[in-house]
Amino acid sequence: MITKPKGCHDLLGVEAKKWKYVDKVIDELMEKYNYNYARTPIFEASELFHRGVGETTDIVTKETYDFKDRGDRDITLRPEGTAGIVRSYIENKMYGEPGPVKVYYNGTMYRYERPQSGRDREFTQFGVEVLGSDDPMVDAEVISIPVLLFKMLGLKGIKVKINSLGDRESRDNYRKALIDYFTPNIDKLCEDCNERLNKNPLRILDCKVDKDSEILKNAPKTLDYLNEESKERFEKVKEFLDEYEIDYEVDTNLVRGLDYYNHTVFEIEAEVEGFGANNVLGGGGRYNGLVETLDGPETCCMGFATGLGRLIQALDLEQVELPIHNDVELFVMYVSDTEKKYSASLVQYLRANGFRVDTEYTGRGLKAQFKQADRLNAKYLILLNDEDLKNDEVKIKNNKTKEEELVPIDYLLYYLDEHLTEEDYDIEEEHTCHCHDHEDHECCGEHECHCKHGGEHEEI
Length: 460
Ligand code: HAM
Hints:
Elements: H1 13-33, E1 36-37, E2 43-45, H2 46-52, H3 58-63, E3 65-68, E4 74-77, H4 82-91, E5 101-110, E6 122-131, H5 136-153, E7 158-164, H6 168-182, H7 191-199, H8 214-217, H9 228-243, E8 249-250, E9 262-270, E10 280-286, H10 290-293, E11 301-307, H11 308-317, E12 330-333, H12 337-352, E13 357-359, H13 366-375, E14 380-383, H14 386-390, E15 393-398, E16 404-408, H15 412-430, E17 433-435, E18 457-459
Parallel strand pairs: 1-5, 7-8, 12-13, 12-14
Antiparallel strand pairs: 2-4, 3-4, 5-6, 6-11, 7-9, 9-10, 10-11, 14-15, 15-16, 17-18
């Protein structure tokens, strides 16, 4: 038997429905923020990631899927989404448009990592990039997107951590301070940290092997090396985060694993019991120099990405019930050939009129069809019978109460509308809620509604 590659998943059944629901919420949210969907290739020239993500990063040195194509070109499966978006921004001369360019993406990424919970070789990222603005308000807006998304999906336990790496001058000063600090102690740190010392000492702070070492904990802090301009900028970002009503904490050891960052960096952790070590749901930051590194004009940018696998894992651990359909409204049953023929046109008619309908396809007897209807959680059964059809009637059975009724075919849609949507109306009419956080804000009127401003709701 051929099995799937290590660190990859088949997405099936209810799990797949959850992902599709999350995709839908993402699309709706992005429409509200006015970000445009962008799709770039899953593979790109290897050089893009070497220059974009950084030669010394773990991603580029150890984790990329690299290969030669049949034209002897060096190709890499994308390990992240930012470099591809920046390439596309430059190639399509999007800097010529009145900015900023605000885009989002939702697609698979590839990293050759040791597979474990929350760490896969093929994984999906939803991310956003804003290209062409240095406004600190953009930093706060980008951070607000995953926060609001997680809240809309019903996730409660999250922690937002932010830090600033400052501009180039601040980063250079900080880099020197780190080299001076780590050099006398470097033999006490892991092999990778020894290599990082001169190439990229900031990455030592991000080391997964030495993360609990006192040497790392007592290392110089970024914020002490920010010049006045960078300090002021960071203060403004924090002010805007307050305006966006985002709770956060400053973590001076947060440097992120990719080379392109400067000024604001952030990560969002899941504070959910049982999550394990890979509890960072998403992260990002400002990357003002990347467009130039990739031969484009000077452009200020900010973005983030979140792993949808980790997000859904967090939702599962918090036992959040997503509003997905795991049933059919109608299951059409038959025995004879004429009933079967009738069922074919009936299911299409019902589907065209908006109902979720399934029927029998394997020639099973009635008893097995009842079982199949139960497996599909069918709400109503339509039991076709030649005698009834002669009278232009069908038998409808409520699969919960087991009540049966003969319904004239002409009256069928009306009957189903009444019975099926009545259940839904009942829920909606009973449902009223108000927002804890924004007393004067309306509820959106839907069952399982979310405050338009991301506030907590209470059903009354
Ligand atoms: P990143 O921190 O490398 O950032 O990845 C972002 C998120 O992708 C992680 O927080 C995690 O949820 C998910 N992720 C990463 N690797 C894996 C994996 N092997 N398995 C499962 N999930 C994973 C970036 O990729 C940047 N491009 C973010 C960004 C956008 N910065 C600016 N703009």
